[in-house]
Input
Amino acid sequence: MRSRVSTGKDVIKTSKRTPAPSSQGIAFDASSPLPEGKDKQALVRSMFDSIAPRYDLVNFLMTFGLDAPWRRRTIELLRLSPASMVVDLGCGTGDLARSLRRGGNGAVGIDLSFGMLSAARAGGAPLVQADAVALPFRSAAMDAAVSGFAVRNFADLPAVLNELARVLRPGATLALLEVGEPQNALLRFGHRIWFTRVVPLLGAALSDAAAYRYLPRSVAYLPSFPEFVRLLNNAGFDEVTHHGFSGSIAQCVTATRSADRKEP
Output
C-alpha cells in the first residue's frame, strides 16, 4: 500500500513525458474578449507560465493568507482514508499535493503549465504536465480528486469532469475549490473593489499585469451552483454539495463518484 503513496507508479500510465513547449507572447487587456476553446487554453497556459515565479507570493497577499486554510478545509472535505491516492488537478505550485503528502496520503499533481510545475514544491509528489481532458491514469485508479482555483481555467469543463469520473473509483470524493462571491452586501461590495481593482494593480506591480487583469474577469467562466450540479450529475457524480469559506469569498463544491456511472 505504501508504494502507492511514495511513487504513484501503479496509477500512472506513463510518467516519462517530454515537456510541452511554453506558449509566449499572448496579451490580455481590459478590452480583450474572454477566449474560448483552444484560444483559452493557450492564453491560460501562457499566463501561468509567466506568473509562476511569484505565484505563491501574490496569492498570499491577495487573499491575506486565507488561501492556506481554504486549501486545508478542502482536503478535510475529501474525508480520506489513510494512504489514499489523490489526483491534484491544476496543481500549480503544489500546495494541495504537498499537504496531502504530509497527511500520509499519496498525490499526483497535474498541470498544463510547465512553468508552474517547474516552480512547484509538492513534497515529493509526482508531477505530470498533461491536459485535464486526457489524464495519464488507469480507469478507477484514484481514491479522490482535488483542484484549487482551476475550474474557471479549463477550456472544456464538461470533458474535464467526465475524465475525472473515469479515473476515480466508485464512491470517491471530488473537491473543487474556487473563488466565490459573498452573500453579505457590504462584504460583496468590498470584495468586488479589492478583486477587480486592487488585485490587478498588485499583480502588475509584482508579477504579470495581463494575467491579473484576466483573473477577475475569468470568474465569468464559473457555472452557477445549479449548473454545477447538472454538469457533475451528467459526468457521473452525485451528492453534490456547496461549501462557502470566509463569508463565501471562496467556495468548494464536493461530489461523489456514482457507482452506476455509464461510460460516455
Remarks:
- Confidence is low (pLDDT under 50) at residues 1-25.
